[in-house]
Amino acid sequence: MSPTPKPGILDIAPYVGGRGDVPGVAKVFKLSSNESALGPSPKAIEAFKAASTGIDVYPEGSASALREAIAEMYGLDAARIVCGNGSDELLHMLANIYLQPGDEVLYSEHAFLVYKIVALASSAVPVVVPEPGLKVDVDRMLAAVTKKTRIVYLANPNNPTGTYLPHDEVRRLHAGLPRDTLLVIDAAYAEYVRRNDYETGIEMVSTFPNVVMTRTFSKIYALAGLRVGWAYCPAPVADALNRIRGPFNVSVPAQRTAVAALKDRAHVEASFAHNEKWRGWLSDSIRKTGLRVDDSVGNFILIHFPASGPHTVDKADKFLTSRGIILRPVAAYGLPNCLRLTVGPEEGNRLAVQALSDFMATS
Ligand SMILES: Cc1ncc(COP(=O)(O)O)c(C=O)c1O
User: Fold this and answer.
1) Is residue 36 lining ligand 1, measured as CB closer than 6 Å?
2) Does the pTM exceed 0.85?
3) Residue 216 CA: which ligand 1 atom is closest?
4) Does the CB atom of residue 88 touch ligand 1 within 6 A?
5) Which atom of ligand 1 is nearest to the CA of 158?
6) Cβ(87) to ligand 1 under 6 A?
């Protein structure tokens, strides 16, 4: 008899990332993984190259230089920051720490797929809350809370819908949770949002003992391939994370490169401005082809296709792919008629709109 994984593991559908190449097509624009259009800061690339001299030595395990840099940037307590091998790792570790078999994990219908994976990986029960209007519904979330609810994962903004919950709604959600239920605010796209009614979660972590915020260097900092994320936590949560995290979970190049990326504010500004400009342009231009595009605050947009007829999502995906434009099918997120398009470089954006417009002109 072979070893048996614990309950839940074999119920996990392995995560499928965005495709990156198209056989036979020379020039491809990968607009499928919400990576940054401008790429990393040149200073980050320099730091990465320079870090090659340090790879024979184990990293400083707590990533203190990076934590100090983050703390200084956001005015936080470095002791309450924990860095991870991408924010995914932190989402996993939190589940690992707080979930017992049979506990419930709450998240909304079209939320980031990793929440289901981490719940099942801890033999917990995923509880999916309907999301009419593709926006987290706080009343429905609260109605689904039971005595067994141990973690609520909230992506704010959410991937792939691009919608966000205003801070008073996030606070209302928190206020309705039992005090021993952890609210994890996954703010992977926070740097793209500048709205008066948006809060990343920092203030709530500072105020409440049961709120954690996770962030990433994969999006606006464009270091997805390096794998760096961080969590801002109440002190006891940081303590628990530090007990279970791999002792050297963030590599030497990852730590040094992330510090350099964080400090290059001009590059972050340029990436933000590029995203604002092209997200608006893409949304408007694609709407003109007759397709529905939802308002998004992230670095991606969600495009809806008719369920039948000549312009279905599968046909669109094939058409676009043949032109080297790779978008992300999001059926696994409960959105079988949508494709998600990541804001890309100007050339990719223009080609994507041209291809969609040509596709809509086919019959
Ligand atoms: C909402 C959300 N959270 C977390 C992540 C994971 O980011 P990381 O690369 O830091 O693991 C992603 C990546 O797509 C995301 O969309």
Assistant:
1) no
2) yes
3) 10
4) yes
5) 1
6) yes
Rounded distance between C-alpha atoms, residue 89 and residue 230, angstroms: 9
Tell me which residue has its CA closest to atom 12 in ligand 1. 188
Residue that has been written with the tokens 């740097």 in this structure? 191
Taking Cα atoms as reference points, which of 230, 227, 216, 269 lies closest to residue 38? 269
Return the pLDDT at 334: 95
- The token pair at 277 is 């400009």
8 Å CB contact between 32 and 328:
yes
What is the radius of gyration, based on Cα positions, of the chain? 21
Tokens linked to 286: 């694609």
Ligand 1 pocket mutation pick from 30, 216, 297 by most atoms within 8 angstroms of CB: 216
pLDDT of 179-210, one tens digit each?
A: 999 999 999 999 999 999 999 999 999 999 99
Tell me the three state secondary structure of residue 305: coil
DSSP state of 17: P
Cα–Cα dist 325/318, whole Å = 10
Within 187-264, residue ranges assigned H as helices are 202-207, 235-244, 252-263
Report CA(117)–ligand 1 centroid distance (Å): 13
Instruction: Look up tokens 């959105």; give the residue.
Output: 335
Contacts of 22 (CB under 8 A, 6+ apart): 28, 321, 322, 324, 326
Kindly indicate the confidence band of residue 15, based on its pLDDT and cuts at 50, 70 and 90: confident
User: CA-to-CA distance for 333 and 219, rounded, in angstroms?
Assistant: 20
Q: Looking at ligand 1, which atom is closest to the CA of residue 186?
A: 3
